[in-house]
């Protein structure tokens, strides 16, 4: 079967580099165009990222000499799909231009996450939100026959909604959530966080991050109405986030306390059982990037830890540990997710795999 | 006026080293004896800590050649007071032996913190708990005429009870507290945390730490009964702690959410005002180690930070920042305290200064 | 073909853990016995390393429940070969006991490295030194028919002798070598280096390390006499090492300046060419663990770097960069090697693969 | 006596911040003008550095509300002296403009360091080079009556020339020097080194740094001719530098091997004695910023270390340890200097103190 031709927007940035590593030998997708800003267009990929390729894996051989093009639809005419690693500035105009040109846009940018007709999808959680796509198209004029925008969540949101979804499915609506994050520097891109700021230090603030967790979680864990025209956000779910940057390269650690509307709340053992048994649609569909185990539950008292657990399953799943009673809410635990994999590029790619399997790319 | 002669128990350990730096030229106390384990006794202090003195300041000249003695009262006959930097193992028998021998013991060990007749005192918060001392003596047989044990709190408890006390004084009883800590490696002593465990990593677990925060806070913020014979712990104050070790040398960062029993809760501005104006008895008594400003409130969006703020006022006060509304509780903020100073040695020394000023060393 | 049964001595330590990961599914070797100290014997491997398994990869499933045995030959009767990850203390008596019991010992300990009848072999450099084995046996009484001890080099020696061997082969004897190392914390095992010592710090001293580099290099780069009974160390090769510990997890960076006896010295381009083209016997023999490229030469001005280059080829080769004229000697460059792979376990395992291919295990 | 009025060029940068901390309550100098780039002029100092003040000490109270001015001489008419923390780009035109306007410029920029009529002065080493100043003025047309430019050395040069000067004074000309540096991130300013580049890493390259060490050392350790019109650089002194960036905040560690022209070379004990006894003119002149001990020689096997020794004497001196025989050259040792203090701002300020004491500011 012919592979689907895909492009990458923002191909030289850190998220773009991750997209390239994931797509260079993908069984279903074929890299057909790489877009960058004007300062890089016309250069080979290799030359454009010289001194800025910060991945442990080398640049794929079949990508090194690809010539970078402008992020304009006319340069991506061979593509059916584009993955966007753009910053929110350029994303605001470029992404809708690609949608209007009938490309399917899988975006890691924040611009359309809270848009009322754009799915905000963590592939391990809510791919059913894709069903709003026909309605998304219908709101546009002219209505694109194939184009749409699907976004994935902020990296720190992704890490917690996976276990929270498992709990909500099993034990009913959540009541209150308190989360404190210890986020890796890679979440800020390159050059991102100055060593001067984070060396031997914690920065207890990440601009806009707490608000993203609080709003995105309510959309992702919410439903969609019967005729797939509107999301049903969980407006009565109280969430409070404390976000911190810590001197860790990759892997967001998040301390979560949660209470349930339905009482009595589940026991620690029931919670662990439910987390361990949680499965997702990407697995059932046989998606290439889906993890074998969605949530890996650790029994050791001091796990998960970013250095030891972030690369498990190539960072496609989520780790949970220290499940225990919370003296204030019902249950507390630690979640650990790979912010550059499932927290970014892996989510976009897995979303596209699901979309392909479900016929949205036809 | 003659200085009070004091000794240090566990003088070669990391807390002991801090005691020595604080006491070497103290205006009211004079170092008269240094106790260590048998492997060090008979050696000069300098020789005993060779390769283990891990302080930025050099060993004080007047301490270098002091001969270390056993941690036995007969070696401390010249002393009125001892500061204990012992681990909990040896502390369990040595500290009461010194009390029985009529020495005043200011302990940094955890053993007697929750003892019903021992004060657990953060000097910036509850020196009024010293009033149980006569009762402490009366419970012993034979009752020492002068000896007693006073403990200071765990370092992560200390950092939060200072602002919480200010809030409780101003706005009435607290209802619920959720705290997540990002604790420095120096809290674990030397050699303490292996670089292999914490380099590029977070360890989301510190043995016993969450329980200490939860129980100690209820004792410290509680009162003492009218005849000073029992503490009135705040048994209905719900506290939940998530404790993490992060790759920071000194300075515990703590993310706190709090709700008040009395509603409506104070505004952010009222909270900041109350924190800024908070004063403590150590200031009124003119104690040598008391900070000028008990709580330094930061208005910058990204402060306090351990590297930048831990040494402010020699680490004798507490820093608070990011005071804001909590979507789940009433108020949330970030507290930053120097775990090796106000979180350990400075607390013990300031407690002794207060005790001296209030006549407990007479 | 039946696999060769092998054992691991010191199986729970950090080098032992690496041996297990490399041997668990090796095509020629089969793990048949795991030895540990008395405190662990009788336990399952999984239980013995609980809280001490510090590898990113999980414990292999087929190893988890293996019962640990004493490091005594009678427990290893099924084995032909043992890999020793023992510390030098126990190695001093255990390793010769296994040799005497007719096992081939591939040791990572330092004890026999400079022994006049023991090969000190970096598999990418001098496997011809294996030819002393018959003589080694002949010096023992009784002479073992099959047993011998082969050692691999210290991790910081390994990183530099590979490029130095290539240069010596191409341009004749080296005259002087100056090397400064920036060594990773994993080189010190677990718990090894305290975070308190290395956090935000450099320790410009590693006990015995400079002497090891200076002596081992002269043995490894030297020859063996015509009847294979003695090593011909390069006594007139002047070497000076400055060894430093830096806050890096894995990967030793080494700055090398070298001069040649034969003048004029080679150009920078000739040196790079020779390094790139260097091949080793392990490659010709088709050894499972041999790298595709022995020395990867980097042209970028700022490579190699430990975080980016240490895992290239699973750490089985060596990286060299910044080849340039030295204003004092002839040539200078930066070498980067993975101290826990080619610097430790991979060297032992590759040595055994070579020994197998060359008939020494028959 | 009236203080000398001084200004700072580049006052908001990291070197400028250091200047301000050192000058805010200096006994001889009074801050009279602060210059910055156009984006900051007109703002109060406090507002201009909001979010960029990265010092542990707070902004001095008497500086907070000073209004920043353009780096033009007309804005500094009250000043006799300016300290330049400018980058080399703006320094190239601004510094000579100030000299021409009759201000004495003490520059930390690299532009004029190798200028044949500009002194390159490490205040602990070669303030005698100031004597070229009349000649410097005479080369200009029109010749300024008071203006001149004095530069201090690159931070990594500074750390080694101090002990090398002591050795040269005592044992005659040096023959060869090999140095490997392990440099702190603060040397690169702010934001400077990305955490992504240096976290868990070493970067074995700093652009231009090796060349600076090699050339600056030959000028600083050289003399000046009899009529003070030309420097006598040590053209036959062979120097080779390997420069590395390491994850340390402050403090450059440098591994030095040195040989002497005069043989036999001094013993280790003679070298240590000479280093310990070395004094400098700034001490004799009673300069405010001069260290009590120019070179602190450590006898412990593992010192100096950046975290423990960089702040000794406020970073105004240099630390040396591990003095030992070099198997290739004569002597080797480790030097440690505070790159932001004696390696930058302290050098400029001490140079100005010396110049004042010697009448060059009259």
UniProtKB/TrEMBL annotation, chains A, B, C, D:
Task: Read off the PROSITE patterns from this record.
Answer: ASD
GO terms (molecular function) for this protein are: aspartate-semialdehyde dehydrogenase activity; NAD binding; NADP binding; protein dimerization activity
Q: What does this protein do?
A: Catalyzes the NADPH-dependent formation of L-aspartate 4-semialdehyde (L-ASA) by the reductive dephosphorylation of 4-phospho-L-aspartate. Mediates the second step in the biosynthesis of amino acids that derive from aspartate (the aspartate family of amino acids), including methioinine and threonine, the latter of which is a precursor to isoleucine.
Under the heading InterPro entries, the entry gives: ASADH-related, Asp-semialdehyde_DH_CS, Asp_semi-ald_DH_pep-lack, NAD(P)-bd_dom_sf, Semialdehyde_DH_NAD-bd, Semialdhyde_DH_dimer_dom
CDD domains listed in its UniProt record: ASADH_C_arch_fung_like, ScASADH_like_N
Pathway the protein acts in: Amino-acid biosynthesis; L-methionine biosynthesis via de novo pathway; L-homoserine from L-aspartate: step 2/3; Amino-acid biosynthesis; L-threonine biosynthesis; L-threonine from L-aspartate: step 2/5
Every copy of the Semialdehyde dehydrogenase NAD-binding domain together lies at: 5-133
Q: What class of enzyme is it?
A: oxidoreductase
Claim: Lyase is one of the keywords in the record: no
| Keyword annotations of the record | Amino-acid biosynthesis, Methionine biosynthesis, NADP, Oxidoreductase, Threonine biosynthesis
Name assigned to this protein? Aspartate-semialdehyde dehydrogenase
Tell me which Gene Ontology terms the entry assigns under biological process. lysine biosynthetic process via diaminopimelate; methionine biosynthetic process; threonine biosynthetic process
What the record says about family reads: Belongs to the aspartate-semialdehyde dehydrogenase family.
Q: Catalytic residues per the record?
A: 155 (acyl-thioester intermediate), 252 (proton acceptor)
E.C. numbers: 1.2.1.11
Residues crossing the lipid bilayer are: none
Substrates-to-products reaction catalysed = L-aspartate 4-semialdehyde + phosphate + NADP(+) = 4-phospho-L-aspartate + NADPH + H(+)
């Amino acid at each position: 079967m012919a592979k689907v031709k895909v492009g990458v927007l923002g191909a030289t940035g850190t998220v773009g580099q991750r997209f390239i590593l994931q797509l260079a030998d993908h069984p279903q997708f074929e890299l057909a165009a790489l877009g960058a800003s004007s300062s890089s267009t016309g250069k080979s990929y290799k030359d454009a990222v010289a001194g800025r390729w910060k991945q442990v894996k080398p640049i794929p051989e079949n990508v090194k000499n690809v010539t970078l093009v402008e992020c304009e639809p006319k340069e991506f005419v061979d593509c059916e799909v584009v993955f966007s690693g753009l910053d929110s500035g350029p994303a605001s105009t470029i992404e809708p231009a690609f949608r209007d040109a009938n490309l399917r846009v899988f975006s890691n940018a924040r611009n359309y996450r809270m848009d009322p007709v754009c799915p905000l999808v963590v592939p391990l959680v809510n791919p059913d939100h894709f069903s709003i796509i026909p309605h998304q198209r219908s709101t546009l004029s002219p209505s694109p026959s194939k184009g749409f925008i699907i976004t994935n969540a902020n990296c720190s949101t992704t890490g917690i909604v996976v276990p929270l979804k498992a709990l909500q499915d099993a034990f009913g609506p959540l009541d209150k959530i308190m989360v404190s994050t210890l986020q890796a520097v890679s979440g800020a891109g390159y050059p991102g966080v100055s060593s001067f700021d984070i060396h031997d230090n914690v920065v207890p603030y990440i601009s806009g991050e707490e608000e993203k967790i609080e709003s995105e979680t309510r959309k992702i864990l919410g439903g969609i109405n019967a005729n797939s025209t509107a999301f049903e956000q969980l407006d009565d779910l109280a969430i409070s986030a404390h976000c911190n940057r810590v001197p860790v390269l990759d892997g967001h650690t998040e301390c979560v306390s949660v209470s349930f509307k339905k009482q009595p709340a589940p026991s620690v053992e029931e919670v662990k059982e439910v987390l361990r048994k949680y499965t997702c649609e990407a697995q059932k569909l046989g998606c290439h990037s889906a993890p074998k185990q969605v949530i890996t539950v650790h029994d050791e008292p001091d796990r998960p830890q970013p250095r030891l657990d972030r690369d498990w399953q190539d960072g496609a799943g989520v780790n949970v540990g220290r499940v225990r009673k919370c003296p204030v809410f019902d249950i507390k635990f630690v979640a650990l997710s790979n912010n550059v994999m499932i927290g970014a590029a892996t989510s976009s790619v897995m979303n596209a795999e699901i979309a392909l399997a479900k016929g949205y790319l036809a």
